[in-house]
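Hi all, posting the design record for the shared folder.

TITLE: backbone redesign
STEP: 1 of 1
STRUCTURE INPUT:
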C-alpha cells in the first residue's frame, strides 16, 4: 500500500500550495516510486498487480493508516506461475504527443 501525507509535498512552510497541483504532487511522487518498485520486482522475477479497486476504509483500519495520509495504490507482489496474454502494444505516435 502506498500513501502520502496530505498537505506536505508541494506545500510551503506556511501551508499554502506551491502551485495549482496541491496534493497532486503526492500522487506524482508515488507514481514514480511505484514504477521503480514494479520495474525492480520484474527484474527480480517477481510479478506485480496494481489494484485500482480497493476498500479504502478496510485497508486504513487493517493497516492502521492515519486519516492524514492519502491511500494512492495497492500493489500485490508475488511469483507468477502464468504468463498472461497481452494485447498488441500501440505505436508511440498513437498515445504520445511530443512538443
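Okay, here is what came back for every position:
SEQUENCE:
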Amino acid at each position: 500500500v502506498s500513501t502520502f501525507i496530505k498537505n506536505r509535498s508541494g506545500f510551503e512552510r506556511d501551508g499554502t500550495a506551491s502551485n495549482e497541483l496541491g496534493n497532486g504532487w503526492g500522487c506524482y511522487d508515488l507514481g514514480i516510486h511505484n514504477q521503480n518498485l514494479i520495474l525492480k520486482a520484474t527484474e527480480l522475477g517477481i510479478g506485480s498487480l496494481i489494484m485500482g479497486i480497493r476498500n479504502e476504509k478496510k485497508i486504513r483500519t487493517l493497516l492502521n493508516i492515519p486519516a492524514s495520509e492519502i491511500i494512492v495504490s495497492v500493489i500485490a507482489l508475488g511469483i507468477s506461475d502464468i504468463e498472461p496474454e497481452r494485447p498488441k502494444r500501440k505505436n508511440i505516435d498513437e498515445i504520445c504527443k511530443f512538443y
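COMMENT: The longest strand covers residues 69-78.
Let me know if anyone wants the other runs.
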